[in-house]
Write a structure and sequence with these properties.
- The structure is a single chain.
- The chain is globular.
- 40% of the residues lie in helices and 6% in strands.
- α2 runs antiparallel to α6, α3 crosses α5 and α5 packs antiparallel against α6.
- It has 216 residues and is mainly alpha-helical.
- The strands form two sheets. A three-stranded antiparallel β-sheet has the order 1-3-4. It has a two-stranded antiparallel sheet with strand order 2-5.
- A hairpin with a 4-residue loop joins β3 and β4.
Length: 216
């Protein structure tokens, strides 16, 4: 196997060692390029399933490269999009559906992970774990997630609102494609939701029950 050599650091190292290296302008450019990369991956009917700061390399010109497709799955032959062979979970970056084997997965899961990566880049910390957020909602407690919109000087509200929407706990409430996300921050689209794989009420109730048990 031959791979390009990227001279630089991963995004996690940049966040931890050089927190002031990237300003709003650079982060917005990086976001658009990552969205283009994710669009390409999803257009090939592949889910990455492991997007996180340590899987984004930045070269010396701050060009982002999405790496590590070890958890990726080709969904073209899986009509149900139920992926259970390999569960890769990173607390703070994985959507709640990644925590239970057999849960339906979709491009919206990758977008959650990208949103969490950008949240870490902007704030210095990943968002609250998604399974804890789901448990809080199930117990009718406030969602511990704090929206970025309105509290990050230097960023357009559309840019922050798109990250917030991508980080919705329930898949159907998220942005459904990287292309929709790009259109939303560019002001050329509305950021459609509602196209994620359907789970019936019994499935959702059982998922919430298991997650509440795991967190109590």
């Amino acid at each position: 196997m031959a791979l390009d050599f990227v001279e630089g650091q991963d995004l996690l190292d940049v966040i931890e060692a050089e927190p002031t290296r990237l300003g709003p302008s650079e982060i917005c450019k990086i976001t658009r390029k990552l969205l283009d990369a994710v669009t390409h991956v999803h257009d090939l009917d592949i889910l990455h399933r492991d997007i996180s700061p340590d899987n984004v390399l930045l070269d010396r010109k701050n060009e982002p490269i999405l790496i590590d497709f070890g958890a990726a799955r080709d969904t073209a032959r899986r009509a149900s999009r139920v992926l259970s062979a390999l569960q890769v979970v990173k607390d703070g970056y994985s959507p709640q559906e990644f925590y239970l084997a057999g849960s339906p997965q979709s491009p919206a899961g990758d977008l959650y992970s990208l949103g969490a990566t950008l949240h870490h880049l902007l704030t210095g910390d990943p968002p609250a774990n998604s399974h804890l957020r789901l448990a809080a909602l199930a117990e009718q407690r406030p969602d511990p997630y704090q929206p970025l919109k309105g509290r990050m000087p230097g960023y357009d509200d559309r840019f922050l609102a798109a990250i917030d929407k991508a980080l919705s706990v329930v898949a159907k409430d998220r942005l459904q494609s990287a292309r929709d996300w790009r259109e939303l921050i560019d002001g050329t689209g509305s950021g459609r939701t509602g196209a994620a794989p359907h789970a019936n009420e019994a499935d959702v109730a059982e998922r919430i029950r298991k997650l509440v048990e795991d967190t109590n």
